[in-house]
Amino acid sequence: MKINFIDLQAQYLEYQAEIDSEVLEVFSSAQFIGGAKLNALEENLATYTGAKHAIGCSSGTDALLLSLMALNIGYGDEVITTPFTFIATAEVIAFLGAKPIFVDIDEKSYNIDPTKIESVITEKTKAIMPVSLYGQCADMDAINEIAKRHEIPVIEDACQSFGATYNGKKSCNLSTIGCTSFFPSKPLGAYGDGGAIFTNDDELAAKMRMLLNHGQNERYKHKYIGMNGRLDAVQAAILNVKLKHFDKEVKTRDEIGTRYNDLLEDADVITPKIAENNTSVFAQYSIRTKEREELIAKLSALEIPTAVHYPVPLHLQEAFANLGYKEGDFPISEEISTQIMSLPMSPYLTEAQQDFIVKSIKGE
After folding, report:
1. Number of domains comprising the chain
2. Which of 244, 260, 277 represents a domain boundary (last residue)?
3. How far is CA 278 from CA 174, 198, 258, in A?
4. Does one domain contain both 80 and 111?
5. pLDDT digit string (tens) for 232-288?
6. Are 206 and 251 found together in one domain?
7. Exposure pattern of 296-329 as b/e (b: 16+ CB <10 Å)?
8. Judging by beta carbons within 10 Å of its beta carbon (0-12, 13-18, 19+), is residue 195 exposed, middle or buried?
9. What pLDDT, in 10s, does the model give residues 145-168?
10. Which of 181, 199, 200 is nearest to 239 (CA)?
11. Is residue 328 part of a domain?
């Protein structure tokens, strides 16, 4: 049985006529940067999330970077985040000369544990950057309350959770700034790199728009040192098509994730726990097992693809050796990194494929 880890080809075939038509319009117009397609996407993203401003940019990583730049974060500053995530989260902090301050995660959600944040806040703390991992939002109310007490902005790294909800509100519109990624494998994916930034703050929005376009407030007039962080029109056109169908895919993802949980209830693995006030878009469907390597090998022999998100916590990465963290500093992140593994997940995973995966895990 042929099973793709993420079936992007099936998705393209479903929307092919719409996507091809939109992309050809961009080619015919020869307006490849900015323009009507990007304007429409930003309006639609803002409407979808309920945020006042949605700003398309070149990647999820650049969305995080632009957010930090807009908050004037740089050398000597500290930003609190999680060590259990993709490197981009902490990478952008270090890139600006600031220091990532790691806090261990909650064992059930795999997101940053809010009860551990306040103890590491100092006068150098300039932001808190929780990650909404695997498609489920972090405990944003608790994080925002801490941030409010200390007058610190919150940047939600929602690169895996666009479309998820927390207390009835959409991810990306839960804090000072929200950032997401449109990398092709994300729940809402482009056909190349792309991202977006969300905020309800007019000043921050205006500044981020300038920063992503070389700091320009008008042509050849540069208010800030910026970057080239623009989202191109072809990606905007593709995303607009996919966004029209996105709620249907989110519903299917939830059904598939829930079905995985039900089918694996009696298996010797730990399945994802979704908090009562949350919905997840299951950017990954990740299980835990102490026999990870054996299970990966068994599934691989049956041509079932798997992945590990993430095998080495950030505080133990060579790139962050200068921070002085050591093994044992964040025991929950470290333990989960040795057990976590992701199974095939997309709205196009069939019940027959899912049954085969689950039976293979159980050895039936």
Report:
1. 2
2. 244
3. 13, 20, 13
4. yes
5. 999 999 999 999 999 999 999 999 999 999 999 999 999 999 999 999 999 999 999
6. no
7. beebeeeebebbbbbebbbbbbeebeebebeeeb
8. buried
9. 999 999 999 999 999 999 999 999
10. 181
11. yes
